[in-house]
Design goal:
Layout (H helix, E strand, L loop, with lengths): L8 E4 L5 H12 L3 E6 L2 H15 L3 E5 L5 H11 L4 E4 L14 H29 L2 E6 L12 H21 L4 E8 L5 H14 L3 H10 L9 H11 L11 E4 L9
Parallel strand pairs: 1-2, 1-4, 2-3, 4-5, 5-6, 6-7
Length: 259
Amino acid sequence: MDLGISGKLAVVCASSKGLGRGCALALAEAGVDLVLNARGAEALENTAQEIRVRYNVNVQTVAADITTQDGQDSVLDAAGMPDILVNNAGGPPPGMWSDWQRDDFLAALDANMLTPIALMTRVLPSMIEKKWGRVVNITSQSVKAPIAVLGLSNSARAGLTGYVAGTARQVAPHGVNINNLLPGVHATDRIAFLDQSVADSEGKPIEEIASERAASIPTGTYGSAADFGAACAFLCSQQAKFMVGQNILLDGGAINATL
């Protein structure tokens, strides 16, 4: 399928590895030029060079912490007026309700709610002016069904979801679509970290923890970053113009819900 977005420009945050990288690759395959961001310069440039060679699109890199004002300024200075924004940032650490203090919640809110809101606030005016734009926020399956040990993430991502629900309807008349992708368990560094945390706490090999987790998913497997990226690219496509403010689960059926 021709997604109709060749020649567009996308900002993809946290895109050197994992789900962000999967999104960057899928957009590049569709002919989209990219501004890639991550904190680690080496991994970021490696991803950028792979994309340049494979897809012959323009790729800029900005090594910066997107959760900071300086990082946001650097990325948007490089991008100018992007057509597409993919918001993504690493999730806060797991723990128990008794572990978290005010500063922990503020850090989670800053990274996983306030940063994507700040970026949207800055790019939406130019999208509205052009009468075309796409924003995809990578959130979490925990928006649909909270994960107790990820209480910091649950809180921040639920707040972002509420913001998007209203804002998406305000900008839709201008040809701008905002939607959220809710990943379940994918084979990424983040999931490896969480699996290792469980393995350490239970005194089991990480392979056993991963096998048990995979068995709890109806597909029996972890998701892939490539498949996730393909879904992101579709949400950025011309064909997705009638999708507004949606929360799309990509979890292998793990959330057992009718709606």
